[in-house]
Specification:
Low-confidence stretches: none
Radius of gyration: 15 Å
Order of helices and strands: HEEEEEHHH
Structural class: alpha+beta
Mean pLDDT: 90
Helix content: 40-55%
Oligomer: single chain
Distance between the termini: 30 Å
Strand order of the largest sheet: 1-5-4
Number of helices: 4
Length: about 120
């Protein structure tokens, strides 16, 4: 099933409201659901980027990409529960990048990089 952009946004809003306000401190740009489909520039047509934690001249913010979620949902025949799980995991993953960044920790960045190295080795 493919949720509409608005349905996915409503789910994301509910999930964000379930979390303690403290995890959003310093996230001046908040969390946005964008309509885009984003492919990893190094692995185009193979890996969708579901979300990103960004820190730049605009501040600190999280972007989640509805089009990437919808593309995977179509390829993998997601249920409503799959949408909930993937949105929740991605939101929490990106918030972890934010919180670790505030603490000067890059553990999740290193784990992400290692997972991508392993994926590339398996899929070459």
């Amino acid at each position: 099933m493919i949720l509409s952009f608005d349905q996915a946004g409503d789910l994301l809003d509910q999930m964000a409201e379930e979390l303690p306000e403290a995890v959003f401190e310093g996230l001046n740009g908040g969390v946005s659901l964008l309509p885009d489909t984003v492919l990893d520039p190094e692995l185009e047509d193979e890996v969708y980027i579901l979300g990103e934690f960004c820190e730049d001249q605009m501040g600190r913010y999280i972007q989640l990409y509805y089009g990437s979620f919808a593309a995977l949902a179509g390829e993998e025949n997601w249920s409503h529960e799959d949408w909930e799980r993937e949105l929740r995991e991605t939101l929490r993953h990106e918030l972890t990048h934010h919180v670790e960044g505030l603490a000067g920790d890059s553990s999740l960045d290193r784990r992400d990089a290692e997972q991508m190295r392993q994926w590339r080795r398996r899929n070459k």
